[in-house]
Each structure stands twice: as C-alpha cells, then as structure tokens.
Amino acid sequence: MKKYIFTLLIIAFISSSCNKANISSEDKRLDQRVDSVMKLMTLDEKIGQMVLYTSDWDVTGPTLKSGYLDDIRKGNCGNIFNAHTAAYTRKLQKIAVEESRLGIPLLFGYDVIHGHKTIFPISLGESASWDLAAIEKSARVSAIEAAASGINWTFAPMCDVSVEPRWGRVSEGAGEDPYLGSRIAEARVKGFQGENNDLSDPLTILACVKHFAAYGAPLAGRDYNTVDMSERVFLDTYLPPYKAAIDAGAMSVMSSFNELDGIPATGSKYLLTDILRKKLGFKGFVVTDYTSINEMVNHGIVANESEAGALALNAGVDMDMQGEVYFKYLKKSIEDGLVDEKLVDDAVRRILRVKFMLGLFDDPYKYCNEEREKQLVYAPEHLEAELDVAKKSMVLLKNDNHSLPLKKGEKIAVIGELAASTRDLLGSWKAAGDWDFMKSTLDEIKLYNGEKNVIYAEGCKKMGEDRSGFAAAIAAARRADKIVMVIGEDWEWSGEAASRTSINVPGVQTELLEKLKALNKPVVVVLMNGRPLDLSKESTLADAILEAWYPGTMGGKAITQVLFGDYNPSGKLTMTFPRTLGQVPIFYYEKNTGRPIYLENPKYKSRYIDCPNDPLYPFGFGLSYTTFAYSDIKLSSNELTSDGEIEASVNVTNTGGVNGEEVVQCYVRDLVGSVTRPVKELKGFEKISLKAGQSKVITFKISPEMLAFYRADMTYGSEPGDFKLFIGGNSRDVKETEFKLK
Ligand code: BGC
Fold first, then answer.
1. Which of the four pLDDT bands, split at 50, 70 and 90, describes residue 367?
2. Which of 60, 116, 293 for mutating ligand 1's site (highest number of atoms within 8 Å of CB)?
3. Domains of the chain by range and CATH?
4. 0.90 surpassed by pTM
5. I need a surface site. Which of 104, 185, 283, 407 has the fewest CB within 10 A?
6. Atom 12 of ligand 1, residue of closest alpha carbon
C-alpha cells in the first residue's frame, strides 16, 4: 500500500502545476497523471470512485446509508456529501488517504446554495438584486467559508429556469428569464470557482450545474413531476443558463430527477451525451441527483436497479449519488456485457481529473485546517457582504403616500410571528448556518428605533387558524403611528419538496392585516417568502409592500435599514407575480397568439372573462424611494447589418428627492420569424446609481448574435426583418422604437 501512496504523491507533485480549469495546453499532462493512477486501480476501486454517499451530518434526501466509513476504507466510496467542518472532513479524508489501498482522496460535496455559515438571501431573492458583482461576491464568500470547513464541492448553481410558482424550488434559482439566468449562473460559477477558475486555490470550490435538465418545469408545479416541452422551448429557454454555467468553467453537472420527453434525465443519452458533452462541450463529470438512478425503476423505464445502472452509465452518468446502484450492479453488468468497461474508465478518468485539478493529490487535507476555519467562518467582511446583497435583493412593490421610509422615532407597531423569527430569515438550504446568535427583524427595529418606540404583538402565527392574538395586535397597533406587519411563508414552505396548490399568504395573516387596515393608519407589509405569491388582497390592504424574501444571516438588519431609508430599495422581480394562481404559468416572454387582447372587441380573444391577462407585478418591476424618468430611445442606426452592431441609448434621470439605483432593462421583439417569437425578450440590463436630479445616458449594443434563436429548421441563428426594441425600468413600462436586421 505504501508503494502506491508514494506513487500517488509523485504523480501529485508533477501535476501540482497543472490545476487550472480550462487550460488546454496542460490538459494532456493532466490526462497522463490520471492515466498513471488508473493503471493502479482494480475494477472495484474504479467503481468506488463513482460512488457518492451522504454522511449522517445532514439529511437532504429520503434514505441514509450506514457504514460509509468502512466503504471509504475499502475503496468502495470515493466521495462524501453532507459532511462538514475541518475536523470531521479531516477524519474522513484520513481514512481515505491512509487506510484505503490506493489512498485516493475524497471529494466533499455539500449544498452550499446561498451560503455555508454566513447565509445570503435565497437565490431567487438574490437574483432580484440584478447585481452581478454582488451575486458573485456572495458565491465567493460562500466558497471561502465552505472551503475553510472541509468542503471542496458545492451542489450549485441551480440553473433551472422556471415559470411555476407552485414549485417550491423556484426559491433556489434565478427566476423565469433565460438571459438574466445565464448571467447570474456565470456570476455564481465565478464566485465558487474563483475569478481565474483556479480550482487548486484552497479558497475555491468546484461548482455543480444543476438540475440537468429542465427540472424547473414540473407539470402542475409538483416537485419531481413529469416535464414535457418542445425541443425548441427546451433549447431556447431552458438550456441557456446551464450552458452559461458550463461555459464559465463549471466542472460538474447534476442530472435531474425528472423525465423529459418520456426519458428520465438520469438515463437520457440525448441530454447527458448529445447535448451536454457533444453540443455544450462539457469536460467535467456528471453526478446524479439523490438516488435518481434507482428512481428510474419507478419511472417505468427499466425493470430493476441493475438495468437502471446500465442505462445511467450508457447515458453518461459518472457518479451515483447515494443510490448504491453502481456499487451493487456495475461490475456484474460489465461481466454480463450490458455495459462496456471503457465507460467506467471514462467516468473514473473524469472524476480523478477533477480531483487533480482541485489539488487533492497534492494535499488531501488542504480544506481541513481548523485555524483557517475559525478565522474565515462568519468573518466580519462576510457578514458585511451578506448585509449588502440582502438590501439589494429587496423589492419595493408598493409605496402609497410615501408610507416608507419610516422615520426614526415614530411609534411603530410590529406585528407577526415572522417579525420575531430568526430561523425563517435563512430560508431553505441553510447549509451549516446557525440562527441562535442572529437578530430577528423585531430585534433590529428595536435597536434602530429605540425599544420604547416599538410595540410588538405576534397577532397570529405564519400558519393555522388561531385568531386569539388578534385583539392584542389591534391594541398594539392602536398605540402606534405606523404598523409594520411581517407576513409570508414558513421557511420550509419553499425549497425542495415544498410545492403548493395555492400561492396565497397562508393562515389568517391576511385576515389580521385586514383588521389592522381598518384602524386607518399607514400599514407596511414586509414579505418573507420563497416564491411569487398571489398578493391581490394584500396589495389593496397595505399602503406599502416590501418583498424581503428570506434575506439571510443579516436579514433583520437589512430589512430595518431599508424600512428606515438607510438604503433605498433597488431590487426588481425576476419572476412575474400573478393576480391569481389561475393565470399561472404567466411570464413576460409569452407569444402574441392569433387573438391578442389589444385588438378591438374583447369577445373571442385570448383572455380570461374573470380577470385581466396582465400580472399584478410584472417581471423586472420594483419601486424606489425616488423616481426615474426615461427619455425616448436613440438608435445609432435603424438598420443592423448581419456583421454589424447598433447602439440604443436612453437618458435616465433621477426625478425624485433622494439618491437611488435603477435597473435599466433592454428588450427586443422579432416581429416576423420562421417560428413565432416572444412579445419581449430581455437582451441586456445595467444597474445604475443616480444622485437626486442626476441624469445618465445608458447605451446597449445590439448585434445579430443577440437575436439568434432555433429557427424552423432547428438551426440556430437570427433572421433578417423588423424588430422592436424596448428600454425601461421593468418589462411593462418601456420606451419603444424599431430597427431592421438586414
Ligand atoms: C436535491 C439536490 C441536492 C441533493 C443533495 C437532492 O434531493 O434535489 O438539489 O443537491 O439532494 O443534497
């Protein structure tokens, strides 16, 4: 055994200078090093590298396996997830390196989705910041803390486009738009894997693009449900964010639970080989989602787990998360000629390659330094970064009569269970985040406004029918100048396995809001939730609504600073908020149809008879404590040649009394295509900061490549013809002009 460890160390030494992702000149050397290890491996050991088991430190799926320590020792398990802290991962790594025959180091995966210890806003919330630098920073800090706690692999970014608010996992993504989703996916990969994509840097971790693919479109919004969409919609709308993350250098991809066009993603050669490897050029490894190989038996695509394993391997799956299928059946399948051993070799090569890139052969304990962990976890600058992005994520949905900002010293009644909660501020997938030391929104409002100026009453719970606290809440509100009611969903109501058939504010929270409204005092609603909600009632009852999502470790402070105007809200929705669930799916890039409603005579038009077509709050929408005016659009030319570029400019002015930030958004519409085109598509945006009274010219460059789509013959490219171009502060309120693509 010693001999092998020595050999591995030599290999590691030679390879330590070739750890940068995507550097093709070094690819060959890396491959040689990987081959040298491969030569030492038995088939069992190779299969062991294709196995990923959860530790018992966190539970993120239905089954737990005991005895993983022994599996590591025997070389039957090359990768662990849900284990963290420098000390514990060191203990496991030691078993792998010192007690297994070959001493190949383990990968340690974890769902560092929006933070490891310092928890950032849920991803949907963070996307509403439209601030790519802040989003990258959040992933960077998450990586630094995770890497300090023994983790070298995160199961993020989640790149699933979704127009389905019933699906609880919209909270984990970047919303409905493929373009914005792509930019955010890139930013997150950059944050996790570092600016230079250098995985050998001990402060970076491997990103995992998930859930490949189209997991965000489950029928009826029910998690894990069937997905069915045209290939064109898949390629045009759902694929781009995954592609962007892969182009940004992500070296692992997770296959999703769902089927697409009748084939479960984990067994889909079309997805995992034709699209992922051939079309997108992905060079890393593919891991399944939690037991998704086994689940192909339930899908009814294979008769048993052994067949499921063969289907997965043949499709392109390299690593089996928690299913034990590869471990139990792969060797036999090879012996029976059901799968080619070469596929196992290819998979192991890809996994080892990433282990080399991470520098694990060089120093298997590089992520297991307790001193470093102590210094980096919850570092003050991490909490500052979280506070910053939490404020930027919040969306002001309504603000009648300048109800906000609150004035320091006003008597404020704070109502609602969520106001006093710390756990809820973290949302789902809180990784290793703690909430015991955190301050609630109520604590922070008291700190800011003075204890004597804050009267708290719970009023009611987040859920349930109990109205016994109403009277006390009303009494508290009577004594106050303004009422701040924090309402929304329990943190567990979004995230995985949290689909809903209603997107109303749960329980009796809205009923209490109605009673508070009757007091004729300004009522401010702060929302905490992980999905678009139906706010049709609340939007008539509240004078102001601040969408705060689940804003993270510093969330209470962030909410307080926004409420009191220390930060002027700048977030914009990245998912449409409907008027009613009956409008779902509703998204801004819909098609015009043959019978659009703007034509005269409303009968026989594509409309509802009991509700307008348009949403309550459109994509891109969000108010500020100031106002912005847009000039008409100026084009550098209204003809765009096939190899040219035109510029579209607007002058944006801060017309209100305070400094503020605005997200200037640019959309296009292709008026006639070989296939019908959406009424608007986001093509660019810029978040700007303007002092009161200040103006700025914002320019977007438009090129033919930006107008490309999958044409009637399924080739990708743009088509000559007339286009509309829109610029504005949301997808509804825009200036408009036209140009021609020659
Ligand atoms: C989820 C993944 C997650 C995995 C590991 C699964 O149930 O779908 O998103 O990464 O568990 O925790």
1. very high
2. 60
3. 2-373 (3.20.20.300), 388-583 (3.40.50.1700), 628-741 (2.60.40.10)
4. yes
5. 407
6. 60
